[in-house]
């Protein structure tokens, strides 16, 4: 009895387990909790669920062992009642996911954690076979919403996105400019998941957006620090392509790097525009989202759009001075001429592992850029996820839900009841199949119409207007010199020290503090 009660409690927890990890969920958007914040609830619920399910299984094992029929019970698969063997398989898959998700294991080998977590399919399907359709329906709501989100992300990620420009900076950072349709909405606080198919078909990596939506309608930029094998291979591919010889004939295609993108995700509300005073603290590549925030504010100030911030302090700590050229990826003066008359901007840079500036300090900002600009007539990012289009998202959820009810009703009327199907595990399998079929068929129909609507809207726009050209994404030495000339007065660089926030922040100041580390 105790094992049964614990299993029921675990089932209640599982009803909410998948909701926080639905990245593009309408529910998360409605309650204004971004995906990266909601994952903590998934972690908490996952630990609680697995504790309850593990105790549930252990108590039954102890009881069967006391009765002397442990092996017979573990291998039993009843037609009427609970099927034990699928439950054992489901629990084993859950334990593998749980153990590999613990912080020490996840830090030791993240890929092991990621790939093992794909066993959630076995975990859920085994549960449906274990308890049957009626009991499984208690947790089916949250699982169904996750399936809706996963199918939508799958449709978006299958599209190949052109990389308009790829640049490798000497400081070990790569800047990618991705093509996107004009009706794809995001803000300076967004992030995307990126897959480079030339490197891996399985690995997806999240990166903060480093560009403002006001920088251009048809592109989105991200900065990537070379810190691991995947990023090192990406930088190597860019360097190899840029050093390759030109094609022998004009008809021969030029090599390029292709990508798939999920997102953008993140806060839909522009919190960086709601405070008069901003203090932005970054470490290393963590400056990337703050470049997007600063660019967004400068555009709004220049164009007279609503923008509350007037006092901005950027505190940036780096290990070596060779990381300073990251600031040259954005020309403040070209975005907002004479911005220093409209905005109080201070940039305090701390180089922590160098006690003195280099002998030729000017060389710090001389950026030699390797650029790859395929500019092929490919696809931009899909608008299926991350646009905040509540109408299409609502139609997708409603049609899939109605389709599930219709499918289940037809199944009972024309198959289960006439054929007197009473096998629990089989009815659980049919229930799970109806969930999957309704998402693919009814939800897929709406996704297809959504895609046609996207193409129709995109066709109306002038793609050549404001479209990024190769010359617009390259930062040459003149642009860097302009940065030095106009922004020296707002930038201070200190070597061999760390930020002292007690002396920076007034005690009675009302401000927004944001921190991002590498």
Architecture overview:
The protein is of the alpha/beta class and about 525 residues long. The chain contains 16 helices and twelve strands. Strands 1, 2, 3, 4, 5, 6 and 10 form a seven-stranded antiparallel sheet that branches. The protein has a five-stranded parallel sheet with strand order 11-9-8-7-12, with no helix packed on it. Helix 9 runs parallel beside helix 14. The longest helix has about 35 residues, at about 425-460. The two termini are about 50 Å apart.
Task: Provide key terms for this protein.
seven-stranded antiparallel sheet; 12 strands; 518 residues; alpha/beta; 46% helix; five-stranded parallel sheet
| Shape, principal axes of CA atoms | elongated
Ends: how far apart? 50 Å
Q: Helix tally?
A: 16
- The quaternary structure here is single chain
Q: Structural class, from secondary structure content?
A: alpha/beta
Number of strands: 12
Cofactor: FAD
Subcellular location: Membrane
Main location: membrane
Transmembrane segments: 48-68, 80-99, 119-148, 278-298, 391-416, 428-453
Question: Summarize this, please?
Answer:
The chain is 46% helix and 15% strand. With 518 residues, it is α/β, with parallel strands linked by helices. The chain starts with a helix and ends with a strand.
Blueprint of the fold:
Layout: H1 2-17, H2 26-30, H3 35-67, H4 70-74, H5 84-101, H6 103-108, H7 110-116, H8 120-136, H9 140-157, E1 161-169, E2 173-179, E3 191-196, E4 205-208, E5 219-225, H10 229-243, E6 258-265, E7 277-283, H11 288-303, E8 311-318, H12 332-335, E9 344-351, E10 370-372, H13 390-416, H14 424-460, H15 477-487, E11 491-495, H16 501-504, E12 512-516
Parallel strand pairs: 7-8, 7-12, 8-9, 9-11
Antiparallel strand pairs: 1-2, 1-6, 1-10, 2-5, 3-4, 3-6
Pfam family, one: Ferric_reduct
Family: Belongs to the ferric reductase (FRE) family.
Domain FAD-binding FR-type: 156-271
């Amino acid at each position: 009895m105790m094992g049964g009660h614990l299993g029921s409690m675990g089932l209640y927890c599982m009803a909410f387990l998948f909701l926080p990890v639905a990245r593009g969920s309408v529910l998360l958007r409605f309650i204004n909790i971004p995906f990266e914040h909601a994952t903590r609830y998934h972690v908490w619920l996952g630990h609680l669920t697995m504790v309850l399910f593990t105790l549930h299984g252990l108590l039954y094992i102890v009881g069967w062992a006391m009765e002397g029929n442990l092996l017979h019970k573990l291998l039993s698969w009843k037609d009427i009642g609970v099927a034990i063997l699928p439950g054992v398989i489901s629990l084993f898959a859950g334990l593998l996911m749980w153990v590999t998700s613990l912080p020490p294991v996840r830090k030791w080998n993240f890929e092991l954690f990621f790939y093992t977590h794909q066993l959630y399919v076995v975990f859920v399907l085994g549960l449906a076979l274990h308890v049957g359709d009626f009991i499984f329906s208690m947790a089916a709501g949250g699982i169904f919403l996750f399936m809706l989100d996963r199918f939508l992300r799958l449709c978006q990620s299958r599209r190949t996105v052109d990389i308009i420009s790829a640049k490798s900076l000497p400081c070990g950072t790569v800047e990618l400019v991705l093509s996107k349709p004009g009706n794809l909405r995001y803000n300076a606080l967004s992030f995307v998941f990126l897959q480079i198919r030339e490197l891996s078909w399985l690995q997806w990596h999240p990166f903060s957006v480093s560009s403002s939506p006001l920088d251009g309608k048809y592109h989105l930029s991200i900065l990537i620090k070379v810190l691991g094998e995947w990023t090192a291979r990406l930088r190597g591919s860019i360097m190899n392509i840029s050093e390759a010889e030109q094609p022998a004939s004009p008809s021969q295609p030029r090599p390029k790097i292709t990508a798939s993108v999920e997102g953008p995700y993140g806060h839909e509300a522009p919190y960086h525009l709601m405070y008069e005073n901003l203090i932005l603290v970054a470490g290393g590549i963590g400056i990337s989202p703050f470049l997007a925030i600063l660019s967004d504010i400068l555009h709004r100030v220049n164009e007279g759009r609503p923008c509350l911030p007037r006092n901005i302090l950027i505190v940036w700590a780096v290990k070596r001075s060779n990381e300073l050229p990251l600031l040259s990826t954005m020309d403040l003066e070209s975005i907002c001429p004479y911005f220093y008359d409209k905005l109080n901007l201070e940039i305090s840079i701390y180089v922590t592992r160098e006690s003195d500036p280099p002998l030729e300090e000017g060389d710090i900002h001389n950026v030699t850029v390797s650029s790859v600009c395929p500019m092929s007539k490919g696809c931009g990012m899909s608008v299926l996820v991350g646009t905040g289009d509540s109408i299409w998202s609502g139609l997708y959820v409603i049609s899939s839900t109605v389709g599930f009810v219709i499918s289940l009703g037809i199944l009972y009327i024309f198959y289960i009841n006439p054929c007197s199907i009473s096998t629990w595990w089989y009815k659980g399998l049919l229930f799970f199949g109806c969930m999957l079929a309704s998402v693919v068929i009814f939800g897929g129909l709406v996704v297809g119409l959504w895609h046609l609507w996207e193409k129709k809207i995109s066709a109306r726009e002038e793609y050549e207007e404001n479209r990024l050209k190769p010359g617009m994404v390259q930062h040459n030495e003149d642009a860097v010199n302009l940065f030095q000339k106009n922004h020296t007065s707002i930038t201070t660089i200190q070597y061999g020290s760390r930020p002292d926030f007690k002396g920076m922040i007034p005690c009675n100041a009302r401000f927004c503090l944001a921190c991002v580390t590498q």
